[in-house]
Fold this sequence. Notes:
The chain is mostly helical and 245 residues long. It has 8 helices and no strands.
Amino acid sequence: MSSIPSTAKAESFDDFYTEVKEIEKRDSVLTPKQQIERLLRPGSTYFNLNPFEVLQVECEATIEEIKKKYRRLSILVHPDKNIDDSERAQQAFEIVNRSWKILENEDTRKKCLDVYQEAKERTDHMIEQKRKKFKKDGRLAEGIPEDDPLKYKHAVYVMTMKLFADMERKRQHLETRDMEERKRKREAEIEQEEQMSFEKEWAKNFEESRQNRVDSWKTFQSGGKEKKKKKIQGFKPPKPKPESR
């Protein structure tokens, strides 16, 4: 899929390896304060989504190499070692610890490696399209910026960070949707429980008042007949008047 010549790839890898070793040498003398600043710098929310970036290890590093770097970083930023800045140190320590948990697990580490692989494939595809456009415009001889191994590495890095950010946005979206769904279901359950409670209370009250209604009706019916019977029994026709002569 890649259009980068094998020699260019080899040079790119060599440059990358050399740069990584220089970074490791530099970081070996970073102070705890500098490591905390690195992990909490502006934009760190997205940078820290990449556990390899947090622990400053190559994606090809072995689990033992990753563990070694994790232990060194966790000691440097541990709150107990940074009492004067313990709150920020705690944040940095949690970031380092979370990254280690991700890379320690084989499944989640593989997912991260898949992100790197996809980033390289997308970058190679982007370069291929750019090269075609340059050829169409008659500018192929100029070459493209990503022909420079360092710029190619940077392009892969940028794409990698973008993919990690996209994954996080999707995760947050699914989490929000799941939370809203759980909330909707709970509200429906509460509504159903309230309806059942209302119906149960209504049935209870109805049953309790049923006998009273029956008794009241019987009393009403009985009272009406007695009244009617009394009226008939008490009826006396008027006496006839005597004839006058």
